[in-house]
Amino acid sequence: MNYETPLFFQVMAYADAADRDVIDMVSGTPDWEPPAALRSGLREYADLESDRFQYPPSDGLRELREEIAARRGVDADQVVVTNGAGEANYLAMARALERERGREFLLTDPVYPYYPGKATMLGGTHSSVATDDEGRLRPEDVRAAASAETAAIVVTTPNNPTGAVYPAETMRELVAVAEEYDAVLISDEVYDHYDLSGRFASALETDSTHRIVTNAFSKSMAITGVRVGYAIFPPELVANARSRHMLVTVATTRPGQYAVLQALRETGPEYYERNRELLRDRVDTFTDALDAAGAEYTTPSGSFYVMARFDGYPGTLETVERLIDEAGVAGMPGEAFGDSRTDWLRFALVSPRVEEAAERLATYFD
Amino acid sequence: MNYETPLFFQVMAYADAADRDVIDMVSGTPDWEPPAALRSGLREYADLESDRFQYPPSDGLRELREEIAARRGVDADQVVVTNGAGEANYLAMARALERERGREFLLTDPVYPYYPGKATMLGGTHSSVATDDEGRLRPEDVRAAASAETAAIVVTTPNNPTGAVYPAETMRELVAVAEEYDAVLISDEVYDHYDLSGRFASALETDSTHRIVTNAFSKSMAITGVRVGYAIFPPELVANARSRHMLVTVATTRPGQYAVLQALRETGPEYYERNRELLRDRVDTFTDALDAAGAEYTTPSGSFYVMARFDGYPGTLETVERLIDEAGVAGMPGEAFGDSRTDWLRFALVSPRVEEAAERLATYFD
User: Fold this and answer.
1) Which end of chain B is less packed: N or C, by CB atoms within 10 Å?
2) Do the Cβ atoms of B225 and A54 come within 8 Å?
3) In this predicted structure, what is the pLDDT of residue A9?
4) What is the per-residue burial (b if ≥16 Cβ within 10 Å, else e) of B202-211?
5) Do B143 and B185 meet the contact criterion of CB atoms below 8 Å apart?
6) Which positions are tagged coiled coil (chains A, B) (predicted)?
7) Is B331 exposed, middle or buried (0-12, 13-18, 19+ CB in 10 A)?
8) What CATH number was assigned to the domain covering residues A53-266?
């Protein structure tokens, strides 16, 4: 087995080595503040008795699991606290394969590149269902692609990289397709707090033994480095996932779990609303500049990303490097996300310099 | 695939539910203080700029990898910082299988039960080489058990549960056996700071492309819940392990990495010596009581554990529950560690009440 270093790291390295000032719109790491209670939770933890520095329960601190369960309307026993959404997706995909109802993962195109990587690592195969130019996924296309070989359908909503938010009907239909083919829908909802459309629908809204929901506090609390996420399994599927979690990581970091629990309890809706407002402003600023640059683009309904297409600038690493050198703005090539966006570039709105980046692009393409 | 909940958890649950005061000598979680700099490192982290709350490099903070590499005499590029030794062993075992030079793991008996669990989860097989009553492993026995099917030999030194410390010659020979059979020696050295004998020898002392060393700060810094460990790979094997790490957990918790780095830099040898002294005292106290109780036992050369055998009390869950109820002391049944210690019990010396536990056992068996 061999895995490639994600293109992501190559772009970051190129931007870092550039001879000029470059505005980083490459990765999905928020540049806003974590909740104050997250910081105070960590501070508090540092002074706890030494026994609180020892293993938490493998599946997570009980209070954290209960807090998550209450918010998501599930039983605490269905929740496994993980090392971020990364581990949550890994556990979910492994669990789907362990059902031994097929070895193929149905992904979307464009796709978050870690999914095909995980599928291959787990010894599964993968194929893709194309979304439309706005990132909409048609459940009938998923149904047409599904077969007895389908182990799981893996989707992200709000979507990275398209910014699409799948409506409730789509989510219901995706669960139905999973049921029809005795597969599992894995719904990665890590951007749920960045739904800018008000139309986000969790897969949890459709009760089923055929869907797993993954999430994390990495994006919602702007703490991608703390590594606390979770997966919610149907009761029938949770035991094996819990065992794998125990055998792979034993447990997720306890200071992080403690701080996230404090932050969940003490952070009001205004924190999340403020971050959404910030994103809305950035979307406006950036897409205005894209208009000025004569580019085609998608206005995200959620998540952090704007996809843009500039005539004569294909979505390749070469173009990205050229824009780093010539415009001083670093994005991601669309080719990193599958076959359908090879003409596009992705820009992450996670820099305080989005306005400046927009100006640079508008000037460059003028 | 199905995994059982480790017996460990059953024993803990039974002890928790007992109607009387029970001294917990079940798990390997230190009851002593983490280094002061670990606490101050966490406190400091809580006040860093928000960009420091975002993803660290997937394979670990550069300064931490360099600090580890300098201490272990390897190149920083060989180090992958992991979610504890649990993930380090998982990555090492997965990497051994990926070489496609056999699918069998050669383990020892007694064995740390997570190893056979990981072997099965990874789709490998496992067989065992018995150690003697003192826990000594004879490399010629390992050689006799090895074959073209051997993917890896997995050992722990200082050992859990036997307390044995393998001498330098054993480690050299184990590496030689791995080389002869084109396998990998995986040496889990998580108890290296609890070598009470002065004879500990790391597998790193034998230069080879056929050995992987795993470790963590969980035991050495008394922080099993923080989840920072590492694996050191030969340069030839590190790339795939790094990719798997990225695909499974993305990265290990950054506050934990930051705090461990501070603690590594600022904690002098007296911290570790003090903890070893504490353990030495506890070994003396506990084995004196075992003498008084007429029990057979092993005096550990390292790690936290004393194995004991009481006539008429086999090393079963039943016996452990009986001792919880009747003596008020909770240990682990020897049967949890393989076939060779089914007459034995394991007691972890990680309670401030070791003396009281010793008295209880001496009285009970009087």
Assistant:
1) C
2) yes
3) 79
4) bbbebebebb
5) no
6) none
7) buried
8) 3.40.640.10
Query: Rg of the Cα trace of chain B?
Result: 20
How many Cβ pairs closer than 8 A exist between chain A and B? 192
Domain ranges (residues) in chain A: 7-34+269-364, 53-266
CB contact under 8 A, B6 and A246: yes
**CATH placement of domain B38-266:** 3.40.640.10
Residues of chain B with Cβ-Cβ distance to A47 below 8 Å are: 39, 43
Q: Is the CB of A10 inside 8 Å of chain B's CB atoms?
A: no
**Residue B121 buriedness (CB in 10 A; 0-12 / 13-18 / 19+):** buried
The nearest CA of chain A is from the CA of B91 a distance in Å of 8
* Interface predicted TM-score (ipTM) of this complex, two decimals: 0.96
Average pLDDT score over chain A:
96
| Dist. CA B318–CA A11, nearest whole Å | 59
Nearest-angstrom CA–CA distance, B272 and B264: 11
Residue A2 has pLDDT above 50, yes or no: no
Say if strands B332-333 and B345-348 run parallel, antiparallel, or are unpaired.
Answer: antiparallel
Does the beta carbon of A227 lie under 8 angstroms from any beta carbon of chain B? yes
pLDDT of A226 > 70? The answer is yes
Q: What distances in angstroms separate CA A87 from CA A146, A227, A232, A296, B342, one per listed residue?
A: 25, 9, 12, 35, 36
> Which fold does the domain A7-34+269-364 belong to in CATH?
Aspartate Aminotransferase, domain 1 (3.90.1150)
What backbone torsions phi and psi does residue B335 show, to the nearest 5 degrees? -65, -15
Q: A358's torsion region: left (phi>0), alpha (psi -120 to 50) or beta?
A: alpha
Radius of gyration of chain A (CA): 20
Strands (DSSP E) found in A17-65:
23-24
pLDDT at residue A1 greater than cutoff 60? no
User: Bridge partners of B23?
Assistant: B329
pLDDT of residue B5: 58
Å from A280 to nearest chain B CA? 21
Exposed/middle/buried for residue B356 (C-beta within 10 Å: 0-12, 13-18, 19+): middle
What is the DSSP secondary-structure string of B40-57?
A: HHHHHHHTS-GGGGS---
A-chain CB neighbours of B53 within 8 Å are 34, 222-226
Residue B102 touches chain A, beta carbons under 8 Å: no
Taking CB atoms and an 8 Å limit, are B255 and A225 in contact across chains?
A: yes
For A338-356, b where at least 16 C-beta lie within 10 A, e where not — what string? Answer: bebbebbbbbbbbbebbbb
Please tell me the distance from the alpha carbon of residue A270 to that of residue A276, in angstroms, as a whole number.
10
Q: Among partner residues A1, A53, A246, which is closest to B240 by beta-carbon distance?
A: A1
Nearest-CB residue to B224 (from A4, A5, A55): A55
B49–chain A Cβ distance below 8 A for any pair: no
Q: Which residues contact A203 (CB under 8 A, 6 or more apart)?
A: A171, A174, A175, A185, A187, A189, A211, A213
User: Distance of CA B192 to CAs B178, B203, B305, Å?
Assistant: 22, 11, 14
Collect all residues with Cβ–Cβ distance below 8 Å to A340 and sequence separation of at least 6.
Answer: A109, A110, A130, A131
pLDDT digits (tens, 9 = 90+) for B233-278: 999 999 999 999 999 999 999 999 999 999 999 999 999 999 999 9
pLDDT tens digit sequence for A91-104: 999 999 999 999 99
Nearest in space to A123 (alpha carbons), one of B237, B114, B123:
B123
Mutate which of B16, B31, B55 to test chain A, going by most A C-beta atoms within 10 A? Answer: B55
Q: Does A47 touch chain B (CB under 8 A)?
A: yes
Instruction: Please indicate if any CB of chain A lies within 8 Å of the CB of B243.
Output: yes
